[in-house]
Amino acid sequence: MSGSAADCQYWERLLAKECRSVCLSVCLSVCLSVCLSVCLSVRWSVCLAACLSVCLSLSLTVCLSLYLSVCLCWTQAALTYSVCLCVCVSVFVCMSLSVSLSVLLTVVSLSLSLSLSLSLSLSLSLSLSLSLSLSLSLSLSLSLSLSLSLSLSLSLSLSLSLSLSLRLYELRTSRRISVSAASKLLTNMMLGYKNMGLSMGSMICGWDQKGPGLYYVDDNGCRLSGAMFSTGCGSNYAYGVMDSGYREDLTVEEACELGRRGIAHATHRDAYSGGVVNLYHMKADGWVKVCKEDVSELIHRYRKDMF
After folding, report:
1. What DSSP state is assigned to residue 89?
2. Rounded to two decimals, what is the model's pTM?
């Protein structure tokens, strides 16, 4: 009985030492994982890397400590030696696993984000854009707006690059860039994509020292100035409506209604267009959003007026 009691006490002490070893290795693993992730500027992937490394270090610590204890005949010195050695090994394993897993998860997350942006650029496209000294899309600054008919990801990329260039020009010269110069910057950007299979139609409108300006820029770097433009796959239908109702002496309300009607009919007839009409009015002191209306509701309303 005394031998059994001694064995039980011995195993209890052994279990307590092993638990302390495991807890110490876990704490060191988490601390080192967080420190390494901060140094490597890795953010959310650290949590998963730390958890995986802790789990692996736990199993490795228990296996190694038990193996060394059995091999060294369960002596007190053997237990102390096994605990110290297993803690060192687990710390080393946690360090290497944290770095490798953090880098691996970062690469995986970058690959997923790249795939997502690629699928968005292949599957999503902006709807028809139309402008009659109006802007229907992206705001570059208070006095300039950009309208694009292009894939969504590339449209945002171009608008951000152009906005950055316009802001740098304003900081260097202490004055706002002209509409003509802004359209020229966009033309230079598009020349870098020439002969790459890109299809784009864009318009820039705004006010400067010379008054209102409206420019059309396409993927070949062609730049045109005019009073009325339409871009996108449904632009032919929109031109049919605009040409029949455009006059140089249009009021703001008449111009807005003409643009709204042109986009509504174009999106109704074109299979690749649709959605809503986002109508903006470009003034000398900035742009103003006029309305946001559903195309299907506009079509029903225009049909009732026709019959």
Report:
1. H
2. 0.51
